[in-house]
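# step 3/5: fold
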Amino acid sequence: MNTEHYDEPGQLLPFEGVHNLRDLGGYPARGGRQLRWGQLYRAGDLHCLSPRDKAALEKRNIKTIVDFRGAEEKKQAPDGRLATLVQTFALPIEAGSILDLCATETKVSGEALMTELYGRLVEIARPQYRQFFRILSDPGHIPLLFHCSAGKDRTGLAAAFILSALGVDRERIYQDYLLSAAYLKEMIRQWLAAKPHLEAVLSVRRGYLEAAFAKIDAAFGGINRYVQEELGANVAGMLEWYTEASP
């Protein structure tokens, strides 16, 4: 098991060609436990892996990759290969209207669109997230890395669902989600130079994740019921495999 870790949960890992790559380890979880380091990683796409990046991920013995990108995204930016990789799962959550917006110059209410999108994703992406939790229920897939294109929306929701299932405090979940704003700052600046009218769409805002949780509360009876009944989370198993006693 890879026990390498950093001082603070959510800390950005220093990679050259991978954006927003983090270890989910260190967060305080249910029952006085904490998430293990070196088990679960979240990231943007792996299209621009440098040789040093590749070696660093292989050192972490990444066995499984879960890719939430759609077919066109993967075609435009295929992931680099890792020698340690055993299996890749394609669980496409199509970005749909966001990609369409990025291809136009139309002025839109980006914040309203993103708020609506997050609320819709907890419903329409249940099959993909349910399969994701089925993968998480097999410890043979550890260490596992999950990602989309930037690692902020589809990946951000996936991370929020994992942390919720393991009993991480809601405020810490928001903080983890909002780290994408800092870690993608330069990338977002470059995007906005070409598409300034999409500032809200390309940004990371607490209200987006709040909208997802609000939808879950209203439609599914709360996050605990959602992750267990709608996504099929094996909470007892996940606590065994992905957490440990706090030091």
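# step 4/5: annotate
The domain at 22-245 is CATH 3.90.190.10 (Protein-Tyrosine Phosphatase; Chain A).
# step 5/5: archive (pending)
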